[in-house]
Structures are given as C-alpha cells and as structure tokens.
C-alpha cells in the first residue's frame, strides 16, 4: 500500500514538473485506436493568470499543439496482448504528434480502459473532540478507512474522497476549518488488474517516455462527456469503445462507481465478419458506412455490395440488404447494453435522483443507438460528445476521443486523491520533540 | 485468379526504435539549436580557419583588400587638389603651407583634419583655424589671425604680442611697426592687458612715451623721453598714472628737469631731480635762508 502511495506521489511530482516545462503528452491506448495529444500549458504570462480564474473554467490554461491517431495493434479488451506490436503503435502515434507539435515530449499521462476495474466504497471516521478540522485531519480520516480485500495482484488506480461528514452534516466537499466532534469520510477506491497496468507502464517506458499520471478511461469519459449538472445530479457515462465498454457513475461531481464490460465495437465487427464471411477490414467499413440498429422497411431494399478481392468472382459480387446487416449488429449491441444495464443495476443506479445516461465512445456513433438504448437503459439517454478544448482538431472531436479529452482535463485539473494529502505521521516528530525537551529539562 | 498488383508485404508504418529515438533527439531544443545555428557557425569557422592558415593566401587577401581600399580612396570624388585660404595675411599663409607640408593631390581619407588643425593653430600668428574639405577637391583653411598689439623687447629680440600677451611673430626692426607701443622687461607678456591699459591712460603724454618697462616682473615703469620715468605701483597702476598726469597738467611736472616720478606709494608721490638742478635748487634755498 505504501509502495503505491509512493509511486502515485512520484507521478504527481512528475506531472507538476512537466507542467512547469509546459509540454505534456496524453496517450489513450485503446483497443481500436491509439490517440496521442500534446498539450502546451500557458505559462504565467497568460493574461489574467493572477486572478485565479482561468478562462473557460480553467480549460484555457492549455492548448493542444499536436494530435495524432493510429490504428491500435496488439490490444484486446483494452489490455495489452502483444507488447511489441503495441509499442510500435505507441511509437507511431507519439512520433506523429511530436512532428505536428514540433517539440519533444518526455512526460505522458496515460489511460487504461481494460484491466477489469472494480469499485469499492470505503468509509472512515475519526474523533475530533470539538476542535476545527485541520489539514492533517483530512489525511487521518482517509487513513482511517479500512482497506478492503482487493485481491491478489490488483492495484489501486484511484482513491478519491467523495464525501465528508462532520457530526450530522454530510455532503461537505471541504470540511477544513469547520468545528465538530467526528469527521467521517467516504472514499471511492478503484482497482485494476496489476498485470495489465504494469504491462502498459512497461510499454510506455520502452518508448522512452515517463509516466506522469494514470487514470481509468471510464472516469475520464465521464468528466469530458457529462455536463456539469449531470455530474452534480447523478449520471452514468457509458464509453463504448472498441474492445471494452466503460461504465462510470457520477454524483455530486465525484465518480462513485466505475466498471467495464469486456465487449465493444470490435465484437460487432467480428460478428459481421463471421456472419457475412468477409474480411475484418471490410466488415469494419460496412459497419461504419452502413451500420445501424433499427431496421425500417426501406432497409430491405437497400442492397450493399460486400466487395472483396478474394479472386472468386461469385463471392466478391455478393450483396446483402442493410436489414441483414442490422440484423447481425443489433443482437450484439443489445448484449452490450444489457450487460451495462446489469452493471448499473448492481451498482444501484436506480436510486440516484437523476437517472441520466450518456453514451459516448466510438461505438456510440451507430445510427439508431439512442432509441435502442432508450428501451434497454431507461428513458433518459443521450449521445454525448466530449467537451471542446482549445486546439483540438475536428477529426478528434467525436465521441471516440472522449477519454483522450478527459485526460486533457485530468492533466490540467486532477482531482484530489488520497495520495495528495500528507501521509499521517505516527506522531513520531512530536514524540522526538518531547524527548528532546525532556532531555533539556533533566540536564539543565 | 489473384490480382498481380497486390503488394507482397505491407509496409509497417511504425518507426523503428532507432528512427524514433533519432527523431526525438532532433526535436530536443538544444540539439535543434545546435543544428540550425551552431553547426553552420562551426563549419564557417572551420572553412575560414583552413583558408587563412596559409600565409601566402593571407598576404594575398590583405593585398587585395588594400587594393580595394586604395581604389575607393583614389576615386576622383575623394581627391583633394588645392588649398584655399580664407583670412590671414600672406606671411601666415606661407607659414601654414610650410607647416602642413601636404602633398597634393591627396585622398581625403588620408588627410587627418584634426591633426592638421592642431598643426595650424600651433603657429603663433594663428588664433583660430577651421579646416574643411569642400566638394570639388578643395581643402579650405579659414584662419583667424592674432592681431599684434605690442612690441616686446625680450631676451631673444623684438617680439610682437597680441592683446592677450600671446606672441604673434618676431620683428626685425622696431621701425617696421613704429605704430605699436614698446614694452620691455621680464614677465612683460604675462601683463599685456595691464600694459595696454596704462598706455591708453598715458595718451596725454603720447608724443613723449618711449615705452613701458616691466620691473622685477611685478610692476611697470613708464619710460618717457629725456630719460624720465614714471614708476608705477604694483596695484592700480592706471590710477597712479592718472594722478601723475594730473600733477603734470597742474604743475607742469614732467616738463621740468625731473628724472623720476615715483608713484609707488600713490598717497605720497616722490620725485628725483637731475643732479645739476638739484644743486641749483639747493643754492637758491640756501640764499633764501641766508645761511652758509
């Protein structure tokens, strides 16, 4: 546990150093694509930097100066499957982004979408004895949370305090300086598979880059795609990626639950490939150009040429109706949404005051997905796009880049995590001071 | 039937590890700067050093540069062919010509006007000089001469002095400048303004004044004809002289057989008479007293 504390703190220090230098890279290693964005942080010479309020709520503090996307290789379910291949793909993306930005980046903030994330809610409580809450008390109450059994080989990715309660008042976002008897805290702990994490770290390290931060992709999609009142009132963000679908639930501006379904757009593609007996790249093309999930009567008449260059003329001349294509895609999409529904039910999403669901990610661009999701997930569903940030190219502004944009926001304004607070010292300095005073008293 | 134009191997778009590292190195700011600024500078320095390492080449280059400079300096536009004088007598002009000793025609780049002006003003007769090169190849020297006000009989003969006591030239014979008053004695040039004031004050005696004599480099004697002298004090000599002249006008003092009028103590003028007159005076006084 202390080991993790140290590595996370080291990453924070590195992130701060990178921001000082002004350039940091964002690396979204996904199953279908790898995106690399290079952020340039404006220095103190930005106009109005000293008034404490940045333009666009602090997002004006950075600008994207290089962006590149490449097809992902060697990834499955958001985890690294063939490390050499993934490393090559990362190198491609990073080099292209560096070339556009005309600068070298050494620090990178990465996201992990797979690794079967698991959420835990922790609670801790300390006795204050009627005095006001000091800085150290926050760290102490977080240290008082009892660690659950997270399992062998799992690593803590996020440990965010989501709520503080002072005596009978709850829902405090910052209890510092307030008086009370007992301080309680709720903490959201997100763990991922340690092997998946260390594979990713190793892969990035092999590209001569330093990791300055790590975040879960479900969390990042949430902070970029949910609008402020959705984050405040309670909403779920469903990031439908290529190999995994991330689910994150937000409430009072904090993530309170995250999970991932190991199904995604790549499965739809492979279904089409198997069903129509065409190569995967043809299937991907059919899916993006003609795909859908709601069939109408005109779709029976719209014939799609399958194409191909297998050498067999009869085989390459086949045609399917769009309804057939939809008939292949729809069950898989329904399955994904059903899985998501099951995860949300398990998390108790029904008890939230507002049951808004936002679909984002590359697979959310399937036409008709919103009306299908309406039937499965509930009445309040919308398709979300990530926030616009300065300098983001138009081709990287779609739902597929939700977690990349979320990473930008995370890099600029990371949420307080457990390791941002000083580890509570075991009263050691006080005791040694007392011992020194005693020694003085005895000798003089 | 398989199409023949399908490429056998798909090219890997990923950069190799080496290419990736080199690209990152090239984007490092210090390396970039070294490449864009440092390397060209180093190459240029190297080429220059290698080229100039050969003494013959250095000499040839120096000669060529000198030739270029000469070609520009010798252009017709920069040549000075004549000297025009403005102000100044013929004697001064001749003296300046002799002192400057410039070989004309010369390039205006070779003429050091400041040094030439220094040389011209070092001539005694020149008070102020202004040198300029005019278009058309003329060196113009505008001279303001010193106007001699006195003749000083010094240890090296007759010298002309201007109103400030600065020598303006030697004089062969006193006759040549009979219009100027004569002064003599050590330290006379230092007190020229005072001498001029005394001479101006002595204008009632103008026809009798022979000159002024500086005594002990501190005070003046006004020398008149018939060996008469008016001895003036160190301070306020003009007032003392005016007093003596007043006495002369009232009592015809200087027309008498007086050798010295001593005004050194202005409140008590004293006279010394010629010996014969003094004896005659004494006889008259004795006769009046009825003594002897």
UniProtKB/TrEMBL annotation, chain A:
Query: Which InterPro entries would you find in this protein's record?
Result: ATPase_NBD, Cell_div_FtsA, FtsA/MreB, SHS2_FtsA
Question: Which SUPFAM superfamilies does this entry report, sorted A to Z?
Answer: Actin-like ATPase domain
> What membrane topology does the UniProt entry give?
Peripheral membrane protein
Cite a GO CC annotation.
cell division site
* Membrane-crossing segments per the record: 21-42
The entry's localization annotation reads:
Cell membrane
* SHS2 domain location: 24-225
Keywords from the UniProt entry: Cell cycle, Cell division, Cell membrane, Membrane, Transmembrane, Transmembrane helix
Q: Name one Pfam family in it.
A: FtsA
Q: Does the keyword Cell membrane apply?
A: yes
Query: Which Gene3D superfamilies does this chain map to?
Result: 3.30.420.40
Biological process according to GO: FtsZ-dependent cytokinesis
> What is the role of this chain?
Cell division protein that is involved in the assembly of the Z ring. May serve as a membrane anchor for the Z ring.
The UniProt entry's sequence similarity note says:
Belongs to the FtsA/MreB family.
User: HAMAP family recorded for this chain?
Assistant: FtsA
Q: Subunit structure, per the record?
A: Self-interacts. Interacts with FtsZ.
> What NCBIfam families does the annotation carry?
ftsA
Q: What is this protein called?
A: Cell division protein FtsA
Q: Which organism is it from?
A: Palleronia aestuarii
Automatic annotation (TrEMBL), chain B:
Q: How does it sit in the membrane?
A: Single-pass type II membrane protein
InterPro entries in alphabetical order: Cell_div_FtsQ/DivIB_C, FtsQ, POTRA, POTRA_FtsQ_type
Record's keyword annotation contains Chloroplast? no
Q: Which UniProt keywords apply?
A: Cell cycle, Cell division, Cell inner membrane, Cell membrane, Membrane, Transmembrane, Transmembrane helix
The primary site where this protein sits is membrane
Which top-rank group of organisms is this from? Bacteria
Q: Where is the POTRA domain?
A: 78-146
Protein's cellular compartments: Cell inner membrane; Membrane
Q: What's a single GO CC term here?
A: plasma membrane
Biological process terms in GO annotation: cell septum assembly; FtsZ-dependent cytokinesis
Concerning PANTHER family, the annotation shows: CELL DIVISION PROTEIN FTSQ
UniProt family annotation:
Belongs to the FtsQ/DivIB family. FtsQ subfamily.
Name of the molecule in the record: Cell division protein FtsQ
- Give the species: Palleronia aestuarii
Its taxonomic placement starts with: Bacteria, Pseudomonadati, Pseudomonadota, Alphaproteobacteria, Rhodobacterales
Its gene is ftsQ
